[in-house]
UniProtKB/TrEMBL annotation:
Annotated metabolic or biological route of this protein: Cell wall biogenesis; peptidoglycan biosynthesis
The name this protein goes by in its record: Glutamate synthase [NADPH] large chain
Domain L,D-TPase catalytic: 3-159
Record bears the keyword Transcription: no
Gene Ontology MF term list: glutamate synthase (NADPH) activity; glycosyltransferase activity; peptidoglycan L,D-transpeptidase activity
EC identifiers of the protein: 1.4.1.13
Family assignment from sequence similarity: Belongs to the YkuD family.
A single Gene Ontology CC term: extracellular region
EC class name: oxidoreductase
InterPro entries in UniProt: LD-transpeptidase, LD_TPept_cat_dom, Transpep_catalytic_dom
Length: 161
């Protein structure tokens, strides 16, 4: 089995493949600033990546993660009102590492150092439209399903089309 993920920025879609067969596909939300690999750009990086780390196994749905650590909080509308400035990272994190030196790895274009994740977000956030700060946002139930199916090291390709 050759699992890999393809993320299409134009389609706002993440698909998990086994070789050429689509196993599942999800609506996502990528960066509101579009594609780009530069540090501090707020853009979603392009190119070949791998899942460097899987974070949040066993946590409840809507678990709040800050700095890749569970805060002990569970997201709710009331919590959101108390922290309106937060970019909510919920439930699970798949931390990406670029594989193309000078393009999405090392120097000022390093996806891992930019903390680029596939992660859960509040269910009130729209999917299918670019709204993130650079990461790939998913519904909490969708990231949980994907997290269970992919291993650390799984290949991820992010394309503009």
């Amino acid at each position: 089995m050759s699992l890999h993920i393809h993320i299409s920025i134009a389609q706002q879609r993440l698909s998990l493949y086994d070789d050429e067969r689509v196993l599942c596909s999800f609506s996502v939300s990528t960066a509101s600033r579009g594609p780009g690999n530069q540090e501090n750009s707020g853009c979603t990086p392009l190119g070949r990546h791998r899942i460097r780390a899987k974070i949040g196994a066993g946590l409840p749905q809507n678990a709040v993660l800050v700095g890749r650590r569970f805060t002990g909080e569970i997201y709710s509308p009331e919590l959101a009102l108390q922290h309106p400035q937060r970019d909510w990272i919920l439930t699970r994190i798949l931390w990406l590492c670029g594989e193309q030196p000078g393009y999405n790895r090392l120097g000022s274009v390093d996806s891992m150092r930019r903390y680029i994740y596939i992660h859960g977000t509040p269910d009130t956030e729209p999917m299918g439209e670019p709204r993130s700060h650079g990461c790939i946002r998913m519904r909490n139930s969708d990231i949980t399903e994907l997290f269970q199916q992919v291993p650390t090291g799984c290949r991820v390709l992010i394309t503009a089309e």
